[in-house]
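During the reporting period the student researcher (J.K.) took over the structure-prediction task from the postdoctoral fellow and processed the backlog of single-chain submissions. One of the processed entries is reproduced below for the supervisory committee.
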Amino acid sequence: MDKKVLFLHMPKCAGTSMKGIFQEHFKEEFKLDNENLFNFQMKERIVQIDKFIKDPEPIEKKFTFGHFFPIKYFGLYGKEKDVFLTTFLRDPISRLASHYSFWKRKKYGHYLQKKMTIENWSFEEFALSKEMRNFYSQYMFQTPLSEFNYIGIHEDMENSWKIISKILNINYKLPKINSSNSGRVEISNSLKEKIKEFHAEDYLIYNLSLERNNILKNSNFIKDWLAN
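J.K. obtained the following structure tokens:
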């Protein structure tokens, strides 16, 4: 691919499993960018976003990977034509459960994790907190779905990995995805409905991405492409 690639690693969506492969393939053209605006509380985050809107950072490497907000590179005017933007998404409830379990077992230093630990939040409190609301939408601030060239689906990892591998012209086996029980929490049906309503924007983003991915996967062009 001639374009520069921005791979938004959405937390707990299998990006860590892919990172090593991308580092090995792109070598000196790989850049890790974990300048995560989610680490800032909203007041400080807005200051950073305003800076990027007015003065976006240049894309220096062939492949940039990490927990960045795309607006950091797009600024006010959006994506350049020679940039390929991609990410992987996961069912929002599943992603929230994995995120909660990760923060319960591993100290990360995030301001919200500290609050969660001190107040001993339940999963329900975590999932329905204002800070976690519409997590995807927060990352995609001012970056519509139409700006993403491809969005892989965690639950359909085998096919999604085949597609992104073809797009990037890399030949590596599917990375091992952590499927341990450590990311599972008991969630009642009533709580699931509350979460879906509370995170309605994220479910819209996820379901549209799922639909787009299914159309792409089932097209004759992609079927023939993946068979080669």
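The committee noted the following: The chain has eleven helices and five strands.
J.K. will present the remaining backlog at the next meeting.
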